[in-house]
Amino acid sequence: MSIVAAALLILVGVAAIGAMYFYAVNNVTEKAPTAAITNLSSGQVVAGPIEIRGSATGEIQTIFVKVDGGSAVSATPKAPDDFSSWSAVVDMTTSGSHIIEVQLVDSKGKVHSNKQSLTVAEPAPTMAPPPDQLIEATGAAGAEVQYPLPVVTGNKADLVGPTCSPASGELFPIGNTTVNCVATHSGDELAASFTVSVNDSTPPAIQAPQNVISNASGEVPTTVSLGFPIVSDIVDGNPSVSNDAPSTGFPPGTTSVVWTATDDHGNFAVAVQMVTVLAGTPDIGNSGNATSNVDDSNTSVTYNSGGGGGGGGGGGSSKSSDTTPPVVTAFPLGGTYSSSQSVTLSANEQATIYFTTDGTIPMT
To answer: Tens digit of pLDDT for each residue in 4-14?
Structure first.
């Protein structure tokens, strides 16, 4: 072989080696970055915003996380530019199958996608009681109370209940009663409780006796029979009753008497009765006649003193005249009665009493 041929062969070999190197350098396949979720597994119970944590390899510029193709959430690296571990907070509130997509952007801006299926199971059931119940008593025994049942949320498969005791619709006594509720789920018991408060805040009903009109007695103040009010209460069968009438009697004129009814639970109501005491004596002239109205269920009583007294005597003799009319009273006093009453009229001295019940001419 000539020297020239040998030289050509060497040149060809060098060129071939160079071409092979160029091909190898320009056709090297870069290894794609990868990522994996490390804290979630299929069927895991999750609810609300959760943190997804993962690891990654390769040259990564940033990582995005999507749930079911939704909005991309930027992942936070372990350290700046170090995505060997990362985390992202996403919202997963619906049970069922979900696709979590992790998008990795490499140093050249190329996006690499890694998808993982995740099944979110329903959370274990929880039971919330209704709010405490505040009920007004309807009688001395309390009240029948209707209340809503507790609300169960979460996985209700195989749920039994809830049931509560005392049951809705039962009679609850006055005071506080604890209602206990239970339900079972896959052998596990759920419990909740609330309070039913039955209160008596309704005051008694009171009707004052009728107003009284009375003549002043010889003594002042005047003692007056007031009668009795009509009182009732839905809970207390016998409310206490009091009034502020003056203990020593009534002065001439009109006085208001306040009646108060109070039940066992401190509720009270008031009613007012007017008492009028007529002062002085009527002007009877020489006839000796006088009229007095007595309030006894609209009965008007007219009386005649029967006293005469004309003048005229001789022989130095004289006659004295009784000019003071008798005081007529009626019993029972004015008021509202459930049955007919016999009214007794009496005078404080011997007299003929005339009366009328309808305003016509009085009779004896």
So the answer is: 555 555 554 54
* Cα(354)–Cα(364) distance, integer angstroms: 4
Can you list the domains of the chain with their CATH numbers?
A: 34-120 (2.60.40.650), 126-199 (2.60.40.10), 205-310+320-356 (no CATH)
* Whether residue 321 has pLDDT greater than 70: no
- Torsion angle defined by CA atoms of residues 205, 211, 217 and 222, in that order, rounded to the nearest 10 degrees: 40
Nearest partner of 196 among 153, 151, 164, judged by Cα: 164
Distance, CA of 236 to CA of 141 (rounded, Å): 10
CB contact at 8 A, 356 and 300: yes
User: In the prediction, which pLDDT does 32 show?
Assistant: 83
Q: Are 202 and 136 in contact (CB under 8 A)?
A: yes
Comparing 232 with 42, which gets the higher pLDDT? 232
Nearest to 55 by CA among 4, 114, 137: 114
Query: Can you spell out the DSSP letters for 301-321?
Result: EEEE----------TT-----
φ and ψ of 15, to 5 deg:
-65, -40
SS3 category, 7: helix
Residue 265: pLDDT above 80? yes
pTM of the model: 0.52
CB-based contacts of 180-187 (< 8 A; 24+ apart in sequence): 181/127, 181/129, 181/149, 181/150, 183/125, 183/127, 183/150, 183/152, 183/159, 184/159, 184/160, 185/124, 185/125, 185/155, 185/156, 185/157, 185/158, 185/159, 185/160, 186/157, 186/158
Confidence label for 279 from pLDDT (cuts 50, 70 and 90): confident
